[in-house]
Design goal:
Helix content: 25-40%
Number of strands: 3
Order of helices and strands: EHEHEH
Shape: globular
Low-confidence stretches: none
Distance between the termini: 10 Å
Strand content: 15-25%
Length: 76
Amino acid sequence: MIFMDIMMPQMNGYEATKAIRNMADRPDGKTVPIIAMTANAFAEDVQASLDAGMDAHIAKPLVMDEVIEVVSNNLK
C-alpha cells in the first residue's frame, strides 16, 4: 500500500501514480493500492486522484477512523 502525497517536488502525486501504474518491469504496480493523502479536499481533488489511478483519497487533517476504514477497504 502506498500513501501518496499530491504536492511533491519534481513529480506530483498524480504523475507518480501514473508512472507506478505503467511500470513495465513491475506488474504489481498495476494492483498495489495507492491512496492519496493530501490537504486537497475538494470533490475535484478526489476525482483527480481517482482519474490518476489512485484507489482512494484521504484528506488532511487525518481522521484516524477514516484512515482505518480506507486501509481496511484496500487490503487484499
